Amino acid sequence: MTTTFHMIAGAPDPVAPFSHAVEADGWVFVTGQMPFAGTSLDSPYPEGIEAQTRQVLKNLQTVLAGCGLGLEHALSVRVYLTHFDADYAAMNAVYASHFESGRRPARTCVGVTGLAKGARIEIDLVARRGDVPVATDLTT
Description:
With 140 residues, this protein is of the alpha+beta class. The protein has a single domain, classed as CATH 3.30.1330.40. Helices cover 22% and strands 26% of the residues. The chain is built from 2 helices and 6 strands, in the order βββαβαββ. The protein has helices at residues 49-66, 84-96; strands at 3-6, 21-24, 27-33, 74-81, 106-111, 121-128. α1 crosses α2 (84-96). It is globular and about 40 Å long.
């Protein structure tokens, strides 16, 4: 098994000792991204959950692009919210606009008591290198 530890130019600096992504056998595990608007840990967060969600997804796209991938390669996503009841619906609206209907990754969303640097949202994901899977509807 070949393992690659990715540090991506243009992605926000890590808030702790970790890689932006770790890849093993085509699986790419992307570290949770915060809503930093720049690469510095001193970059301000955008105001509001909608703007913070957009920024986190942009940061995830930067990391994925640095690995030669995009959000369409995401298979599993975890979302962490510090204001779950207040932010869930608005976060979902922004989140849904970044994934094609019928091709959305599996997802878990949890409320937490705090995130690094006071963020309201953090998202991590697992992606897979290779062909992008075809959507299948087994409900009919």
